[in-house]
Write a structure and sequence with these properties.
InterPro entries: AA-permease/SLC12A_dom, Amino_acid_permease_CS, APC_superfamily, PTrfase/Anion_transptr, PTS_EIIA_type-2_dom, RCK_C, RCK_C_sf. One of its GO terms (cellular component) is plasma membrane. It is a multi-pass membrane protein. The strands form two sheets. A four-stranded mixed β-sheet has the order 1-3-4-2, with helices on both faces. The chain is about 60% helix and about 10% strand. It contains 30 helices and eight strands. With about 700 residues, the chain is α/β, with parallel strands linked by helices. Helix 5 packs across helix 19, helix 7 packs across helix 8 and helix 7 runs antiparallel to helix 16.
């Protein structure tokens, strides 16, 4: 991916939590409870609980793909890379429009609540808010998330106080007659189980903020941890507040009044907050409602603008939409999204939108659950999620069936609206994008098992994503580099002879069959083009007989001619640096992450000339390890580290997360053990966690 089209990774765990949570608290809490109670009566809070449970399979599926493919575009990117660009276009345009609708109505909500204080037309305030949030989005996702964090913290404080005060007043305050409260819950299910399911589908839109995380996954630091954890925390917190908050509303508001109340939270709060000055509690709840609508509008503009950005990058929409400004934000996509929001504010009403938005997103969830099955069954080795959905494929089948059942309860108008979006997206693909896109989804890799063709470039794209994500905790890359064997060729040699000699060396060291590893090194792979770098060759093999990876590095100053295939063109390159990596066959994805790390090192500017300039094996290994995770210390008299001289390594106290990986003595390097006695002028290579390495660096200032 070109640097100009790459978004900054600025978002942490709390940013993920606040974007998701902020996107869910608006109409779901401040508008829908009263409307939803028409379908099921006082059991409406159970409908919210049921909806939270029913979204879990789709959340797990979304989290799995997002940790494997952290790219802007969310559902669009996932469907495009799994089911192909046609489904990507349908999912992208449909989800984009649904998010824009939801954003527009959230901003109208701001106008409605602000109009209580100021005599200004609702839509005028909504449009002004659109411009404000557009400005925040243009200056970058991190600044947008800071505003989002403020909204969410304020909102959660008010709602938690609302719930605590409400539960106290219901169960412990003598001012409320408990029998009267109990009467609000009889009959509990006014329309039976069917009404409860209809309610769950109706309020399902309240939890769709979870999907917004996937659309900004490219901008999240440590996505393999922060995405699933942030989504789970957000669902738990949001679900608890919805269920308890709506329970308080049902308890305090007479059932027939609740069914027609468009502001049930404001109505309920009139009976609460008696411990603060008159009407201040109502104003506080109105402020919380405005913060909720503002957070939804802000998060909606942030996430929805990433859909045209990602689709422009993939040529399904005009490529200009993928341009990134100096501040790291897709400015053209943001401007167009803001313009659409303003149009919808001006011309649309709120009636029926909740069901329409829910219906189309349920269709997307069906496809996302199916996409996980496709990715798992396609045998794409570089599909490497940091989080895997439990109970596969039962969880995904359950997600598909849940979506299908809930769609059936949404009614024909909502279904026809979704079918119309699907038709428009399909026509756009066939008449605009089809001629510009030459890729297929992972489903073709699945078909390859049945003798059909597959799109090999998908493997290469996933390898690029693996490289950007980096190593996973526990991957033995540093240890493999430290223990690697380095060979320097002073004489000419042909490529086949080199592979034969290296395979023979592996055979002796690892007690394996030479021919097996030799054949593996020479076998063409779908990811070979991802490992092709000028003057460098990365060869790899997978063996059942070994438990840990082993690496040989060959430096050939004169160069060795090696056959190279790039696309449909075959030729030869002169190779001066060879990496031979043999890994356990049981952990193929770990090998791919290590290969991706090697490629990222090789892509350093001037790599070949720098590594060839080192004659010392320790310095070569340190160059390959070069990052914030290691330091080099020489034991000299008169320095702080002199206290190590003459001591066994096991008696020296280091932080628990560091390791003395190499000792150089008399120009020879070796990995030490606990009984190794350190000597004066020894050079230690210490690896470990960045914080501990930084502290050691401050103590031992002798860098070699």
């Amino acid at each position: 991916m070109a640097g100009k089209n790459r978004l900054k990774k600025e978002l942490g765990l709390f940013d993920v939590f606040s974007i998701s949570t902020g996107a869910m608290f608006s109409s779901g809490f401040f508008l829908l409870p009263g409307l939803a109670s028409q379908f099921t009566g006082p059991s409406v809070f159970v409908g919210y609980l049921l909806a939270a449970i029913l979204i879990v399979p789709s959340m797990f599926s979304m989290a799995e793909i997002a940790t494997a493919l952290p790219r802007s575009g969310g559902a669009y990117f996932f469907l495009d890379r799994s089911l192909g660009p046609l489904f990507g276009t349908i999912g992208g345009l449909g989800t984009y429009l649904a998010l824009v609708f939801k954003t527009a109505f959230a901003l109208v909500g701001i106008g409605a609540y602000a109009a209580i204080f100021w005599d200004i037309p609702i839509k005028t305030i909504a449009i002004a808010a659109t411009f404000i949030f557009m400005a925040f989005n243009l200056v970058g996702a991190k600044k947008t998330s800071r505003l989002q964090n403020f909204f969410v913290v304020f909102l959660l404080i008010v709602l938690v106080v609302f719930i605590i005060d409400g539960l106290y007043r219901i169960y412990f305050s003598p001012q409320v007659a408990v029998p009267a409260v109990n009467e609000h819950f009889s009959p509990f299910l006014t329309h039976g189980l069917e009404g409860l399911i209809t309610t769950a589908g109706f309020v399902f839109v309240s939890y769709l903020g979870l999907t917004k995380i996937a659309s900004v996954a490219e901008e999240i630091r440590n996505p393999e941890r922060n995405i699933p954890l942030g989504m789970l925390l957000s669902l738990v917190v949001t679900g608890a507040i919805y269920v308890l908050g709506v329970f308080v509303m049902v308890s305090l508001i007479e059932p027939t009044q609740l069914a027609s109340d468009l502001a049930p939270a404001a109505t309920a709060v009139k009976q609460l907050f008696k411990w603060i000055p008159d009407h201040l509690g109502t104003y506080l709840m109105i402020g919380a409602a405005m913060a909720a609508f503002a957070s939804t509008g802000n998060a909606g503009l942030l996430s929805s603008s990433r859909y045209p950005f990602a689709m422009g990058r993939d040529k399904l929409l005009p490529p200009a939409l993928s341009r990134v400004g100096k501040r790291g934000s897709p400015y053209l996509s943001i401007l167009i999204t803001a313009a659409l929001v303003i149009v919808f504010i001006l011309v649309l009403s709120e009636e029926g939108i909740a069901k329409m938005a829910s219906t189309f997103n349920l269709i997307i969830f069906m496809l996302i659950n199916f996409a996980v099955i496709v990715f798992r069954k396609s045998n794409i080795q570089s599909y490497d999620p940091g989080f895997k959905s439990p109970l596969f494929p039962l969880m995904q089948i359950a997600g598909i069936l849940i979506s299908f059942v809930l769609i059936a309860y949404m009614g024909w108008p909502a279904v026809l609206f979704s079918l119309f979006i699907i038709l428009v997206a399909a026509l756009w693909y066939y008449y605009y994008a089809r001629a510009k896109v030459k890729r297929e989804g992972a489903i073709y890799h699945w078909f390859a098992l049945l003798g059909q063709h597959q799109h090999t470039e998908l493997e290469n794209e996933f390898m690029i994503i693996l490289k950007e994500k980096g190593l996973r905790q526990g991957d033995p890359f540093d240890e493999t580099i430290i223990k690697s064997t380095i060979f320097r060729l002073d004489e000419g040699m042909d490529f086949e002879t080199l592979v034969e000699k290296m395979s023979e060396q592996f055979s002796r060291e690892l007690d394996i069959q030479q021919q097996e590893v030799q054949d593996d090194f020479l076998t063409a792979s779908t990811i070979d083009t991802s490992l092709t770098i000028a003057e460098v060759a990365v060869l790899f093999a997978k063996l059942e007989e070994i438990d840990v990876p082993t690496l040989y590095i060959v430096l050939a100053d004169q160069g060795i001619r090696k056959p190279v295939t790039k696309g449909n063109i075959s030729g030869e390159d002169t190779i001066k640096v060879f990496f031979f990596l043999v890994s356990p066959a049981a952990d193929v994805r770990m090998q791919l992450r290590m290969l991706s790390r090697i490629v990222s090192i090789v892509e350093r500017e001037g790599f070949v000339s720098e590594i060839l300039a080192h004659s010392n094996h320790r310095k070569i290994k340190e160059y390959l390890l070069q990052n914030e995770r290691f330091i080099t210390v020489q034991l000299l008299r008169g320095t702080l580290q002199a206290e190590m001289i003459g001591k066994p390594l096991k008696e020296i106290k280091f932080p628990p997360d560091v390791l003395v990986a190499l000792v150089e003595r008399n120009q020879k390097s070796f990995p030490p053990h606990g009984n190794t006695v350190l000597e004066e002028r020894d050079i230690l290579t210490i690896i470990g966690e960045p914080t501990s390495i930084s502290k050691l660096f401050e103590s031992y200032m002798t860098y070699i």
